[in-house]
Design a protein that fits this description.
alpha+beta; four-stranded antiparallel beta sheet; 12 helices
């Protein structure tokens, strides 16, 4: 049977089923560009790349992996409804963190769902594609190729297996949902994470902070040590904490910032129009927060809730700084 040629398609990295939840009261989604230009359109008008997941090798070797994202996209509405059922402590930001964190049940089917949704948004994100492009072109230049440019097919070939690899890795680790009712989150075409753009090296120390709704951000953590329970915690953030996450998101975004009602002030990092990152993906405010979220124990000392003294992300950050100082001394 003769294979039908691949049709030109728009492949969404920010699916319509999610974009709907970023629409304001007038049913329009707002996007800001690095130069400050504001665009408003119906959900689905933004967040897509033409033929991003097609691999056009020629004739019968043409293929696409776009269908693998159908399952997480189709369950997005149900996933958002589930997020709405989660509770978060009413404790204020100046209260002890152990009183602000609230453990939540995470049945196996929900654990699989949050892994699918999160892995799909990570694997097809423009920041992952940009990382693949940089790495591929580096090696092509090293091999002396006259044209080191990585086209869409070459990027897609390296991107193809990431969803399954990320999803399987995310079946282990701890999740947190950060809520806000004082100030809205923003989303972008990049967000803080330290996952490699490769199916390899998915080891401990992984972290991800993904604003998924104007009112909710997904956090994934896999430090070397953490209590096995709870698998999921929630935390309600204050306005100042949301502003800090907004600044972090702008560092990792390149061309798009989505918002619903709270228009963000653009940072200098976002104005550069490229996917940037903190050194070692470490951040002086965020890493201590990830420590608390990952080390929270529902049944700590004397049977009361507690937070372990282990500081995996902060210690990793400080260790990298020490290494940098050591190397600098040897130069």
């Amino acid at each position: 049977m003769k294979q039908k040629p691949l049709k030109t398609e728009l492949h969404h990295w920010w699916p319509r089923t999610l974009a709907d939840h970023w629409a304001a009261a007038d049913a329009m989604v707002s996007v800001i560009r690095p130069n400050g230009t504001l665009h408003r359109a119906r959900p689905g008008a933004f967040g897509a790349i033409t033929n991003a997941h097609h691999m056009k090798m020629g004739g019968p070797w043409d293929s696409t992996f776009e269908p693998i994202f159908n399952e997480p996209d189709n369950e997005m509405a149900a996933f958002v409804r589930w997020l709405g059922t989660l509770e978060a402590s009413l404790a204020l930001p100046d209260q002890p963190m152990v009183e602000r964190i609230l453990p939540q049940p995470l049945p196996d089917e929900r654990a699989a769902q949050i892994a699918r949704v999160t892995a799909s948004l990570l694997a097809r994100s423009p920041s992952i594609r940009a990382s693949i492009k940089r790495t591929t072109e580096y090696y092509r230049r090293s091999f002396g190729l006259a044209d080191p440019t990585a086209d869409k097919t070459l990027i897609a070939a390296n991107q193809r297996g990431l969803y399954d690899a990320y999803r399987k890795r995310m079946m282990h680790g701890r999740w947190a949902i950060l809520f806000s009712d004082e100030r809205e989150f923003i989303a972008g075409d990049g967000f803080l994470h330290n996952f490699p753009a490769s199916q390899d090296a998915l080891n401990s120390g992984l972290k991800l902070v993904l604003p998924i709704l104007p009112t909710a951000t997904i956090v994934y953590m896999s430090p070397m040590q953490y209590p096995s329970e709870p698998r999921l915690v929630t935390l309600r953030l204050g306005a100042e904490e949301v502003e800090r996450l907004t600044a972090i998101t702008q560092v990792y975004a390149s061309d798009f910032l989505f918002y619903r009602d709270d228009k963000p002030d653009l940072s200098e990092a976002f104005k550069h129009g490229e996917h940037r990152q903190f050194q070692y993906h470490g951040h002086h405010w965020l890493d201590p927060l990830l420590d608390d979220l990952s080390q929270y124990n529902r049944w700590g000392k004397d049977g009361a809730a507690g937070i372990s003294r282990r500081r995996p992300y902060s210690e990793s950050l400080e260790g990298n700084r020490w290494l940098d100082r050591f190397v600098a001394q040897g130069d």
